[in-house]
Specification:
It is built from six helices and four strands. The protein has 117 residues and is an alpha+beta fold. It has a single domain, classed as Glutaredoxin (3-Layer(aba) Sandwich), CATH 3.40.30.10. A hairpin with a 5-residue loop joins strand 3 and strand 4. Helix 2 packs across helix 5. The relative contact order is 0.21. It holds the Pfam family ArsC.
Length: 117
């Protein structure tokens, strides 16, 4: 399993504790230091069944000046803008070995990704 996190985030710390309690092996990616590419973000939003703007943190997106239409024509621009400003990305993002991907902000999402592992 891979987890994208910001160590300063309480939801990320909770996700790590949950993984540890479940005995799951995982790899940590500090996405603010090891920036995802637009292509990687595109893969993540596809696995999540979302669009990039659905994965954006609204306040941080506004602060980063991301003011793009939320439509298919601007999808790539969203991905590029979020890759350039990774603080705009919801966290933590967990991906199990089978490709199951969740934004692990609640116990149900964490349980789903752990079960897939």
């Amino acid at each position: 399993m891979e987890i994208w996190l910001n160590p300063a985030c309480s939801k990320c710390r909770t996700a790590l504790s949950t993984l540890d309690e479940a005995g799951v092996d995982y790899t940590v990616r500090r996405y603010l230091d090891d920036l995802p590419t637009a292509a990687e973000l595109g893969e993540v939003v596809t696995r999540l069944g979302l669009e990039p703007w659905d994965l954006a943190r609204p306040k941080e997106a506004r602060e980063a000046g991301i003011d793009l239409p939320k439509d298919a024509a601007h999808r790539q621009e969203w991905l590029e803008a979020m890759a350039a400003s990774p603080r705009t990305i919801q966290r933590p993002i967990l991906t199990a070995a089978d490709g199951t991907t969740v934004v692990g902000r609640d116990p149900e999402s964490l349980a789903r990704v752990i079960a897939a592992e």
